[in-house]
């Protein structure tokens, strides 16, 4: 029951995160200033190409599908080749690892141990993004340990 609940929460989180990336891909601006690391409040340190935004949106959607499959509410193996089973099994380890590493950060712009903290992004990262990444990682590990 815990695996079902946690999996569905992760599906919802990944659907929302993917939705934000699709929104930005198609020109939306809301929240974008808080979502891109910067050296200062006036200039972004990263110019994010549209293709990267699309890839992130699709990968987040894939992560959600992996956890939807894990919830056992749907059986994607009926629709997707047997290879998805292997991708999903590795993904259940890789996904939490990615998000825990993201929460730790790069020691400069992102994560709990970043040096640049007083930018718009830095404040949002400390209050929302890094805690969310840690939560996603811990939920993924909990799913693995209770399965």
Task: Considering the chains and any ligands shown, give keywords for the structure.
147 residues; mainly alpha; 5 helices; 0% strand; globular
Could you characterize what this model shows?
- By secondary structure, the protein is mainly α.
- The chain is 67% helix and 0% strand.
- It has five helices and no strands.
- Helix 1 runs antiparallel to helix 5, helix 3 packs across helix 4 and helix 4 packs across helix 5.
- The longest helix has 27 residues.
- The mean pLDDT is 88.
Task: Describe the secondary-structure layout.
Elements: H1 2-25, H2 32-35, H3 50-70, H4 83-104, H5 120-146
Helix pairs in contact: 1-3, 1-5, 3-4, 4-5
Per DSSP, the total helix count is 5
Low-confidence stretches: none
The end-to-end distance, rounded to whole angstroms, is 10 Å
Mean pLDDT: 88
What is the string of helix and strand elements? HHHHH
C-alpha Rg (nearest Å) = 16 Å
User: What is the overall silhouette?
Assistant: globular
* Beta-strand share of residues: under 5%
Helix content percent band = 55-70%
* Main sheet characteristics: none
Number of separate strands? 0
Based on secondary structure, the structural category is mainly alpha
Question: What's the short version?
Answer:
With 147 residues, the chain is mostly helical.
